[in-house]
Design goal:
2 copies of one chain form a homodimer.
Chain A (H helix, E strand, L loop, with lengths): L20 H10 L1 E5 L4 E3 L7 E15 L5 E7 L4 E2 L2 H6 L6 E14 H10 L1 H27 L2 H11 L1 H6 L2 H8 L3 H13 L1
Antiparallel strand pairs in A: 1-6, 2-6, 3-4, 3-5, 3-6
Helix pairs in contact in A: 3-4, 7-8
Chain A binds a DNA duplex (30 and 30 nucleotides) through helix 8.
Chain lengths: 196, 196
DNA sequence: CGTCTATTTGAATGTACTCAAAAGCGGTGG
DNA sequence: CCACCGCTTTTGAGTACATTCAAATAGACG
């Protein structure tokens, strides 16, 4: 389990920030506690996205199905991470991808409207979120670099090293779809690594 | 040329925001006007990054040189865009990549410290920047999806469609290094497309 | 025209994919 | 406890796509 527990006040999401009693109540009123079972979809392709999820426990992924029917995993989400279809959430447009539960999960859910309300009334949350966004931005940049400069085997090793907890929580075919390779290729890569 | 001119007040960078006279003076004092010639490097690999650039005119790119000596273009920057090594800039760490001028450029330069000062004294700038960051975040997400789901030819067509202005401003070998393919492959792809 | 840089072409190679089939694993019910 | 089922991973053979290295053109500019 992560640092934040589902029974704590939602304000615990913003780790390191301290709040007044009124602020804590406001934050509490904007987040909804949600539990979701393996296989459930929180966001569906082509629907309007106005929700974002903070993961207390469990594992989720966002993925896209391309014109050939192949799934591509954009992001995995585990405890203390946020997940949504950000492209759609930020622009209030329709989802390019779906978000599904891989392992039973406990979540804090918030709508865009409520998020904006929190930003407005508690500006330090906006500052905090900008910092998180910057970190996520930088890690996306690194991921792009890994597609540009590494072969499948090196990308896999890099993934395992960077996200050991995720590697343990998901199926190999999910990892393959995150790395941009087929299940068969990942299997052969793992075999090669094991032999060395 | 873009909407913002180098002779305008720096506050023009934040398109759509209106400022008081005092705010305009503060913003002006934090940005420095810089001109840079083709070939110049604004950020060098392995050096501390504390500057970010708003591009008024010209063209730049950020790129990484991998362990085999190959260059990979992370981002192109043209007028009205920001460029830096964000990974390093956000974390005040050393550059993973370099930023070089592809076409003579006019820029507004700002340090991290001055940026933070502006955020603190003019909060609406921080809100504005968060919005920009979200847009950039979403476009990175789309780019990752393109590496996962498209072959080289489709990625190229996608690039040309999405960034026609950039395609005109840069060499093919830069485009190849952005798409994650070799110059030779891009040449063959362009030939195929031309024939069809 | 000559030089430097950028692009194209060719042939051989390599990496990852496709499709099909087999093996492994985990849970359920008899 | 074992047999079966569904799901996941592995293996194999053939193929496709992109790379490598080397050489030939094409363009830009003085």
């Amino acid at each position: 389990m992560g640092k934040v527990k589902i029974h704590e006040p939602a304000s615990a999401i913003f780790e390191g920030l301290s709040f007044t009693r009124e602020e804590i109540i406001l934050i509490e009123s904007k987040f909804e506690r949600v539990t979701a079972k393996k296989g459930e979809r929180l966001i569906d392709f082509n629907t309007i996205v106005d929700k974002q999820y903070f993961i207390v426990s469990g594992c989720l992924r966002s993925f896209h199905i391309d014109s050939n029917g192949r799934e591509h995993t954009i992001q995995f989400g585990i405890e203390d991470w946020w997940i949504s279809d950000y492209t759609a959430f930020f622009s209030a447009g329709k989802a390019l991808m779906s978000v599904e539960v891989i392992q039973d999960a406990e979540l804090f859910e918030i709508t865009k409207k409520d998020r904006d309300h929190l930003y407005k009334h508690i500006p330090k949350i906006e500052v905090y979120v900008r910092g998180k966004l910057e970190t996520a931005f930088a890690s996306f940049q690194k991921r792009i670099l890994s597609y540009l400069s590494l072969n499948a085997s090196a990308r896999y090793l890099n993934f395992v090293k960077s996200y050991p907890q995720i590697e343990q929580s998901v199926k190999n075919y999910h990892i393959a779809s995150y790395l941009g390779i087929t299940t068969e290729s990942l299997s052969r890569i793992r075999k090669e690594i094991a032999q060395a």
